[in-house]
Amino acid sequence: CGLKALIVTTFGDIAMLAGILIIYLYAGTFNFQTLFSTTSSWMTKMAANPGIITLTTILLLGGPIAKSAQFPLHVWLPEAMAGPAPVSALIHAATMVKAGVYIVARLFPIFFNGYWVNGFSEAFNFFPIIAVLGALTAFITATNAMVSLELKKILAYSTMSQIGYMMLALGVAGMSVNATITGYVGGLYHLLSHALFKAALFLCAGLVIHATGSIYIHEKGLNRKYLPMTWIFMWFSALSLAGVPPLSGFWSKDEILIACVNAGQYGLFLAALLTAGITCFYSIRMMGYIFYPRSGEVEEVHGEPKLMWIPFGILASLTLVIGLMGYWFGEALHDIFKEYFTNLLGIPLTASAHTSTSLTQLIIPSSSIIMLLIAGIPAYTLYISHKLDPWNIVGVNPVLRLLHKILWNRWYINKLYTMAFVEGFHRSRPTVQRYVEDALDTSLNRGVPRLFTAAFNGLRKIQTGVASINILYVLIFLTSIAIIVLLVS
């Protein structure tokens, strides 16, 4: 698992380093502010070679895509769940995997300035690339979470999906000046909101795994009466993840949906809305398996140490606190970034969702809530009330069985990579060994020592140890040098 993470993220790191070096060749600086203020100068040089800006954009995004586990470099994060739950809560929910979102947000003003102010058409490619990849990641990984049976892997897929939302928001923010503030704030607002509820969920998962000794949700069957604090705070976090009002996830998710509409990207809006429904479904499914098992399957686990539940209790409570003041918190962020971008870019930007039409403010939240009901009611029926058995439904329907198989195998993306790279390298090993490694080994590791051995055996024959012969050698050497000097002069 560690090796897989190392290889995949290193691939993205090298790509990003290449993009940084290309920009340095043209701009002569690594400083963000200098790059922004001199955009017209160094982008003019890059634009003189068509395709360079687009290539640099793709290379630069390689780092964020790999580090934040976005399609197509998302395959490493589920395996990283082999680490302990507190580590997952810190670096896989709140910090490390968010680094990609942060760098995209830092690069955003440079490319926004390049296209909307200075008119370099290739600079625009930065935004649809990251928006489409974010939407794809959000949908693909959310569907993986629908069928996963490993608790922390469900949360890992969810992390990738929610980061996809953030990338989508930052992408659509640059595709239209009408969506700039809403999209930029939506991405960063969701980053903060997600850090709270997902860190809480990972810590809750740690306590659940500690209590049951199993990493699988279908082997839990906990009695919520004996773990009341875990049950309450895990529900808070899961509902915030699902985007249920008035928790913080509702406000930040709706900012992203409104940004898609303001940018005129209705396809991306529908993808994000569908993903929101899937998120609600797998969140309720996860909670149903853990705390609402079928009769006779309950495991009465006692013990809920304060040292374990107080940290995630604080985080889960913050999702409610921020949610209750979510509208005003979002409004404050809008005002801050509106002033920042207006002063920085000198472009009159549409302020935010808060100045969108009243119809938009009504339709988007209503659509979101309707989607939550469409997904949440079946999930409740299947996994909490147990009026229907999901395995029986899937088992009798060949289409659902095929769909389940595809999702269970992670859309076969991981297997494709394994076949192409892992097995491909294994198959190429004999050829590489025969024509490359053996040739290098023969010429360098064996050939060079044999050359020196032969030279040694030849030279030692003239080393007799007789003084008169050694003096003769010296005279011959000096005579030769003198002749060469005379000839040259």
Describe what this molecule looks like in 3D:
The chain has helices at residues 2-27, 32-37, 39-47, 52-67, 85-94, 99-117, 126-147, 151-173, 180-212, 228-242, 248-262, 266-291, 306-324, 326-345, 358-383, 390-396, 398-408, 413-459, 467-488. The model is unreliable at 351-355 (pLDDT under 50). Helix 9 crosses helix 14 and helix 10 (228-242) packs parallel to helix 13 (306-324). The chain contains 19 helices and no strands. The protein is mostly helical and 489 residues long. It is globular.
Question: Which descriptors would you attach to this protein?
Answer:
489 residues; mainly alpha; 19 helices; 0% strand
Beta-strand content:
under 5%
What's the total count of β strands?
A: 0
The total of helices stands at 19
Structural class assignment: mainly alpha
Average pLDDT score: 88
**Rg, Å, rounded:** 31 Å
Unreliable sequence segments: 351-355
How much helix is in the residues?
over 70%
Instruction: Provide the succession of SSEs.
Output: HHHHHHHHHHHHHHHHHHH
Give the termini distance in whole angstroms: 70 Å
Summarize the biggest pleated sheet: none
Backbone shape: globular
Short description:
With 489 residues, the chain is mostly helical. It has helices at residues 2-27, 32-37, 39-47, 52-67, 85-94, 99-117, 126-147, 151-173, 180-212, 228-242, 248-262, 266-291, 306-324, 326-345, 358-383, 390-396, 398-408, 413-459, 467-488.
Question: Topology, please?
Answer:
Layout: H1 2-27, H2 32-37, H3 39-47, H4 52-67, H5 85-94, H6 99-117, H7 126-147, H8 151-173, H9 180-212, H10 228-242, H11 248-262, H12 266-291, H13 306-324, H14 326-345, H15 358-383, H16 390-396, H17 398-408, H18 413-459, H19 467-488
Helix pairs in contact: 1-4, 4-6, 5-9, 6-8, 7-8, 7-12, 8-9, 8-11, 8-12, 9-10, 9-11, 9-13, 9-14, 10-12, 10-13, 11-12, 11-13, 11-15, 12-15, 16-17
